[in-house]
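Let's practice the habit of predicting before peeking. Look at the sequence and jot down your guess about where helices and strands might fall. Then scroll down.
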Amino acid sequence: MPDFETIQTEEELRTILGYPGELVKNKVIHILDGHCRQFISQSPLLMIATSDQEGRCDVSPRGDAPGFVLVLDDRHLVIPERPGNRRMDSLRNLLSNPRAGLIFMIPGLEETLRVNGRAYIVKDENLLQQMESHGRNPLVGIVIEVEECYSHCAKAFKRSSLWNPESWMSKEKLPNIAQMIADHVKLPGISADKVAESLNESYTKRLY
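Done guessing? Here is the structure:
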């Protein structure tokens, strides 16, 4: 750890950053009301934050067509687990620490919806078939028992100009992900071109 001056208590932190206003303190609800359900039904992307029993954290994206997350009732929703890279970071974390935080996003909308709660990994066929897509059911799903819901302000999205196409870099200037992976894995015979072929095959043939 570099020799930085650090903050050790909430009191010290509050002295620097202050306290939330009444609006912020009272915006948290504990059920999925009509506003939350509408937001979730229009969201094609969420981030799920998990940690293991020792506190090691992970944040992973989940995305599909808007409405891919199934709302069961005012206290429960289900995230389908589509095919991925089989690392299963989020799922393994949930086995040892069944808590998760979600951020739902809608393209073009700078406010987000946050949902926190207790998580369960489910394999119930009757439930999973309700999230069928492209002729395939997810093999498992993540049920979130909702404890908190609230909207998050747009400041981060405004600062980043995330949804403003004029702020986007040209594709030629973007990071070369295939080269990044090839350099990181350092495996014999694995070139950037090989990685690019593998990624393309995965993206075109194994999304579902």
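How did you do? Strands lie at 45-51, 57-63, 70-73, 76-80, 99-105, 112-122, 141-152.
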